[in-house]
Design a protein that fits this description.
187 residues, twelve-stranded antiparallel beta sheet, alpha+beta
Length: 187
Amino acid sequence: MRWLFALVFCFLATNSFAESYAVVMDCEVTYQSVVSSEDGKPKTYAGFTGETEQGDTLRLEYGTSDYPELYMKLTDVKRDKNILEFDNASIAFLMSDKPEIEFGGDEKIVYFSSENGFLNMSPDKLNAKYFGQRLHLYRYYKSDFHGLRTITNAPNLTTLVQTFDCRMVKDEIEQILAKVVAKLDSD
């Protein structure tokens, strides 16, 4: 009986992992600046103390295990700290209505949006906005992406600007999009 239980458990675990897809990129921070307005004068800084610095690596991971269980996180590798994270609740918060599928030429773009922000993804782009943070990544060559991240803190009159050069570690974007589109088509 134990072997039957173990066999069923392995089968279920294998099937659930088979349905899990992810995109993973390692991104070098190629430029960083903080711009602030202090007493009516512009000030610039290299960054915030104890936070990400130019030259650091950020790991971007996004994917799905069982749509609509989408997630995205950006992690500061050196400090082992998540600095941007969308989980399923965040995605649900972004969806005012059913997500849209747009076509840019032959490219399918899945687009989630509401007054709170947006998340859209395609094989060559990832764009997100969530509570003052924006992230934009675009493919420029095979598995190479470049991008821009901004964080605006209006009460403190500061904006952080970062640019990235990213290398794809794992690319399952086609599977993620196919899964999301199939689910949307079935609803």
